[in-house]
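Suppose you are handed a protein chain with no further information: no name, no annotation, nothing but its sequence. What can you learn? This example shows the usual starting point.
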Amino acid sequence: MKPNSESGSKRVKTVAGAGQGTIGKSSGNKEMLESCGIKLTRQRLDLLEQLKKADGPITAEQLFLNLREEAAAISLSTVYRILDAFELKGLVEKVVSADENKAIYELNRHEHGHHLICTQCKVRMTITGCPLAGYEEALARSTNYRITGHRLEVYGLCPKCQSELGML
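A reasonable first move is to predict its three-dimensional structure. Written in structure tokens, the prediction is:
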């Protein structure tokens, strides 16, 4: 399980190699954009690299801050426009967090995953395995729906926040 969180007063997982001029050097970025029919620009390549570096879902604001730390010339509105284009082409997945009404983005690795979210510090952990596979099949049989997917977010207090609140 890998923790990740959003900006603000919350903990942010730092990615090794960030700020070391690695933007655009990762193999396959150009090919990935071209295969999706997305025009190549430095800003799109930079943003794609940041999405690849992220341990999990990340906000547009955090992507913007990460890019600015690496001296990338980009505005927050451009980050949102690029993310919208990436989402339309299936390159990223956008999820609006139910508890904060805030969008988070993750590179679409075409892998199935769920998240455990701390309600105090907002740290997110990817849950391995899927407890809904059997239920999804039964639901499809009982409703005649062709189930195409699902998302699962489980909320609670992480061990660190429990400790800070005197609950452990």
